[in-house]
Amino acid sequence: MLGYYFFLALRSLRRTRMLTALMVLAIAVGIGASMTTLSVMFLLSGDPLPGKSDKLFYPQLEPSTGATLRHWPMDLMDYASAHDLWAAHRATRQAMVAEASTHVVPTASGQSPFTVATLATTSDFFPMFDVPFKYGGPWTPEDEGRAARQVVLSATLNQRLFGGANSVGQDVVINGAQLRVVGVLDHWRPRPRFYMLAGSRNSGGDTGDFYGPTEDIFLPMATGIDIAQADMQPFTCWSNGNIDFKHMMTQPCAWVGLWVELPTAAARDGFSRFLDDYDAQQRSIGRFPHPKLTRMLSLHEWLAFQQVIPADVKLQTWLAFAFLAICLFNTVGLLLAKFIGRSNEIGVRRALGASRGAIFGQCLVEAGLIGSIGGLFGLLFTVLGVVAIRHQPVAYADLVSVNIPLFLLALAVALGASIVAGIFPAFRASRVAPALQLKVQ
């Protein structure tokens, strides 16, 4: 029976080619627009560390001495607080992070010095976040403790400086200091750069840069403070006097983040108590003047709090699905016009014994066929949309792609939407009264 309905649907589509083309185009454009924006949303809202994100936490406290009482702690800590919590080693792993911009002097002739994004961190950063290495590895905790002149390079910077060769053991001049390369990262592009999201919530939705490439240089925290303290990027300061940016360790500024790995509920509870106890201790000696304000968010909670998905992507997604709904409403109208226009034919078939269910089924098969064709063309529009986004000047453009699950979803949405759109027109068509008489010319 289904094959018979399919045969009748094909005959009907051939008889009304222009109307069929309009319906296919409406569905294809709607599917293409919605699946393109869904591809971007899927990319930007994914789990940056699958299987491990529920074990990573971002502790926070309020170190400022200003008069303003805050509703939640600052995104970053002052150096003293972050170092105290890190040095206590109350977690399985713990890593401090701080951003800077440093100057690199290439050793090869003909290359001019340039500035690169730099992350000062601690040795646990790499195993905690499953950072892959192409050559070498991270520095050791012992090297970290003595502020060893060591550095880890990104694959991009290694390509620029050493042509992509194994540069472990080579020297790089950073901010005038000679550092030994101990490791080169393999391709690593977390989406977003979750470990440094300070200020994302307050950026007015302009968060695309958080999806850009990682830093090119990774320095031990102590080494970074030695050679690049003046280049560290403070998040905020709370002193009425002048800030000495050359000695950030002792300044009333928040510029250091802390991540901890806590694999069990007991470990999480224990670190949370430790954080509260540390805050109480600092308030008791007068360093923290405000009432208790601490919290510890998981990686997923931190991403949600920072509202890291760009506002324009959210808006485009809503608009695209609204446009798909408009396309489907138009398809309902076209299907209704098509089926009602065949009232005489349907009436004759009813007079010859066709049931209402048969008419309804045939019309639904016809709507499903239109949706399937529209879905296939919608995939083409999706690919074109993704290509267009990849040429946009946004940090995440090179990451956008269409994967197989989204292709299958697009086909399913097109088929399901067309069938839903065809229910009312098919119902109206099935209610056409049988012809009262047959005329033979």
Per DSSP, what share of the residues sits in E-state strands of 2 or more residues? 5-15%
Terminal Cα separation, in Å?
A: 31 Å
What is the radius of gyration? Answer: 31 Å
| Poorly predicted ranges | none
| Average pLDDT score | 86
The biggest sheet, with number of strands, parallel, antiparallel or mixed sense and barrel status, is: 6 strands, mixed, barrel
Strand order of the largest sheet: 2-3-8-5-7-6
Q: Helical region count?
A: 13
Number of strands: 12
Percent of residues in helices: 40-55%
Shape: elongated
Oligomeric assembly: single chain
Q: State the secondary-structure class.
A: alpha+beta
Topology pattern, helix = H, strand = E: HHEHEEHEHEHEEEHEEEHEHHHHH
Model description:
- With 441 residues, the protein is of the alpha+beta class.
- The protein has helices at residues 2-15, 17-44, 79-87, 125-128, 141-145, 155-162, 221-228, 265-284, 299-306, 311-340, 343-351, 356-390, 404-430; strands at 56-60, 93-105, 114-121, 133-136, 150-153, 171-174, 177-185, 217-220, 236-237, 253-254, 257-261, 295-298.
- The strands form two sheets. A six-stranded mixed beta barrel has the order 2-3-8-5-7-6. It has a two-stranded antiparallel sheet with strand order 9-10.
- β6 (171-174) and β7 form a beta hairpin.
- α2 runs antiparallel to α10, α2 (17-44) crosses α12 and α12 runs antiparallel to α13.
- The protein is elongated and about 95 Å long.
